[in-house]
Design goal:
The complex is a heterodimer. In chain A, 67% of the residues lie in helices and 0% in strands. By secondary structure, chain A is an all-alpha fold. In chain A, helix 4 crosses helix 5, helix 4 crosses helix 8 and helix 7 packs across helix 8. The longest helix of chain A is centred in the middle third of the chain and has 34 residues. Chain B is α+β, with helices and mostly antiparallel strands. A four-stranded antiparallel sheet of chain B has the order 2-3-1-4. Chain B is elongated, with a radius of gyration of 25 Å. Classes of the chains: A mainly alpha, B alpha+beta. At the A-B interface, helix 1, helix 5, helix 7 and helix 15 of A face helix 1, strand 2, helix 2, helix 3 and helix 4 of B.
């Protein structure tokens, strides 16, 4: 039978339709393994310490000092006061939740759509998610004023017989943020298990072997393990994708269910999701561009990958611009004088006009530079733009929160908001904590998913000549 | 310390080689064998005859349980044990309890997927007989291993060894399980 079968020759696709390799320069499996684990096994580079020490100072000195001062003294040490009861704390909460979102979007959604390029930077984005949700969760917990009563938010049976009030979106938020933290941590950790097993197998010292061995859970890499692992990973990716759309929308509902002009809009859940994703792409670029250079990962995180992220950033910029325009249009079209007042004062008010302009100029205008290939290929400029996007998105939240609160329905009720040094130092503390955790992550865990990258290489494909297949097309 | 035979291990260099060898071992009629690879090999599931992993059912069970449980909890808290009128809203209504129930369903389903993966793989475990083999450390790097268990009814040290060598395996060695 076999002798009579004709050898079917399928024509090779034209060059422009062929998929570019995920890893450049045709690297083998062994080379990749050594390369990708080198950073966790080698000597700590000087730049790592130079970044780590200041971050650790803000994380371990500034942030705890600010928290102790605020909790022991009271909310008054912040600038929050009537009528602006939500200040930097809630702005930063929304901002950190936003930063988290792109991580999940990149790692979970691009996984489900089988984008091979995602394997290289997915883990770095997931790490970003985990640490920024931690920072986000911190703010509401201390914003409640009496942080020692934070457990009231959970349905714990107590002698008072009191239960949380589930009709409030603020209560939903408690569950949304905690769930987000737990699910993204699970997703991140589960993806890490085979790579921790790799580090265990490569460990030279007993201590390393013991610690990595503990977290690898005894992974052997058998086909049965991979079989269940892949299934669980797809399920988790799908669940994370659900969270991309729910967490920020619930944060948006915190605002939308109030009666305040500028907040009371049905577009808010979507608005916050899109804003979150946009801001998160900015943060991904802020982290990826320097790390790629400093850790010598140019062959693995290629310019093509960064180019794709830039394009996604541009798309989310256009989405957010559409929502800005829609917001203004509806404010005008509603004929509601309070809405019109709030929206005209976002740009032309005498106090916070700058917030609205920064938001429009950065989030809409400057992101349009990403249309140009020459711009996208200049990574220094892209990095600067990514930092600007994070600032612009911070001002968007400032405009929404403070801009709506400081002048509500009654002029007698109008007020003014100014942050205090405690607000600023707490924010710097969370930034320091985020970067400290991130630096520890890249130092001690593989920041690139080694097993996943190998599985999408031609060398890992049993039907490809480089993977040992006889015949076939190269 | 008594050592009993765990099985025979053979080493392969490429994913195509291990896939081919797996096919040969299956055709020879072995049942208790497994391949160990640095990453999932495309097509190995078919050769080894795996059925759909039940991890998804764990996820459904945990997620569904969390959804129903949260609905019940909210009803118990706000409508039964401590009914309290807030803004004239009903004590319990599906729209208001859907959001937390949905969120906790996602959490439950995620925990279910993880628990399912760990349980089906019989993890965590402190030790595995294969960890005693020095060369097996390469399994997470760029080598591919095939192990035929000594508990397989067809297992015989000489015959099985010959099969593995014919299939192209190098460093065919006996693995011992030390208890």
């Amino acid at each position: 039978m076999a002798e009579t079968a004709t050898n079917l020759e399928t024509p090779a696709p034209p060059a422009e339709l062929r998929r570019a390799p995920v890893v450049e320069n045709n690297r083998g499996l062994g080379w990749l393994t050594d390369k990708l684990t080198a950073f966790t096994e080698g000597k700590t580079p000087r730049w790592w310490w130079m970044l780590f020490l200041p971050a650790a100072f803000f994380a371990t000195v500034v942030l705890p000092t600010m928290l102790i001062y605020q909790i022991s003294t009271g909310i008054g040490v912040w600038g929050n006061n009537h009528p602006v009861m939500w200040g930097w704390d809630i702005i930063n909460f929304v901002w950190w939740v936003g930063v988290a979102h792109a991580g999940t979007l990149i790692s979970a959604m691009l996984f489900l759509t089988r984008q091979h390029g995602r394997t290289t930077f997915g883990r770095m984005a997931e790490g970003m998610t985990v640490f920024s949700v931690m920072m986000a969760g911190l703010y509401p917990a201390i914003h409640i004023g009496r942080a020692w009563f934070a457990w009231f938010m959970f349905p714990v049976p107590t002698y008072e017989g009191m239960w949380p009030q589930f009709r409030s979106p603020l209560m939903w938020d408690v569950f949304a943020v905690n769930t987000y933290l737990m699910v993204s941590t699970l997703f991140w950790y589960m993806g890490l298990i085979p790579d921790i097993a790799l580090l265990r197998d490569r460990s030279k010292t007993r201590v390393r072997k013991f610690i990595y061995g503990l977290f690898a859970l005894g992974w052997t890499g058998s086909a049965r393990q991979w079989h269940h692992f892949e299934k669980a990973y797809v399920v988790l990716a799908g669940l994370c994708t659900l969270l991309v759309f729910t967490v920020s929308s619930i944060v948006g509902l915190d605002f939308a269910t109030s009666q305040l002009a500028g907040w009371h809009a049905t577009i808010f859940p979507l608005y916050f999701v899109v804003g979150a994703v946009y801001c998160g792409f900015g943060m991904v670029l802020v982290l990826l561009i320097p790390l790629r250079k400093l850790c010598h990962l140019e062959d693995i995180i290629t310019t093509r990958h960064l180019d794709r992220i830039c394009k996604l950033t541009l798309v989310s910029s256009l989405c957010i611009t559409y929502i800005y325009l829609m917001e203004y249009y509806i404010a005008w079209y509603s004929g509601n004088p309070y809405e019109r007042w709030v929206f005209s004062h976002r740009l032309l008010g005498h106090t916070y006009w700058y917030g609205g302009w920064i938001m429009l100029c950065v989030n809409f205008l400057s992101a349009q530079l990403l249309w140009f290939k020459r711009f996208r290929q200049n990574l220094k400029l892209v990095f600067i733009l990514a930092v600007l996007i994070n600032i612009g998105m911070w001002f968007e939240r400032f405009t929404i929160i403070v801009g709506s609160l400081y002048q509500d329905f009654l002029p007698a009720n109008w007020g003014f908001y100014k942050q205090t040094w405690v607000d600023i130092c707490t924010y710097l503390g969370t930034l320091g904590t985020f970067f400290m955790l991130y630096l520890l992550f890249i130092r001690f865990l593989p920041m690139i998913p080694v097993a996943e990258v190998k599985s999408v290489l031609p060398q890992g494909n049993p039907h490809h000549p480089l993977g040992g297949a006889k015949g076939g097309r190269s | 310390m008594s050592a009993k035979t765990y099985g025979l291990i053979a080493e392969f260099d490429t994913p195509a080689a291990i896939l081919e060898a797996a096919g040969k071992v299956r055709d020879a009629g072995y049942h208790r064998w497994d391949v160990f690879t640095p990453f999932p090999i495309h097509g190995i599931d078919k050769v080894m005859g795996f059925r759909n992993s039940p991890v998804g059912w764990f996820s459904l069970l945990f997620g569904g349980g969390a959804f129903v449980g949260t609905m019940g909890l909210i009803w118990y808290c706000n409508a039964f044990d401590y009914p309290n009128i807030v803004g004239g809203k009903p004590m319990f209504s599906p729209p208001m309890s859907f959001v937390p129930a949905y969120i906790l369903m996602v959490l439950g389903a995620a925990v279910g997927a993880f628990v399912g993966m760990v349980a089906m793989n019989q993890l965590p475990r402190w030790h595995h007989p294969l960890f005693g083999k020095k060369r097996f450390e390469m399994v997470s790097r760029d080598k591919f291993f095939l192990v035929i268990g000594a508990t397989d009814p067809k297992f015989s040290e000489t015959e099985t060894r010959r099969l593995l060598e014919q299939a192209g395996g190098s460093h065919v060695e006996l693995v011992e399980d030390e208890d």
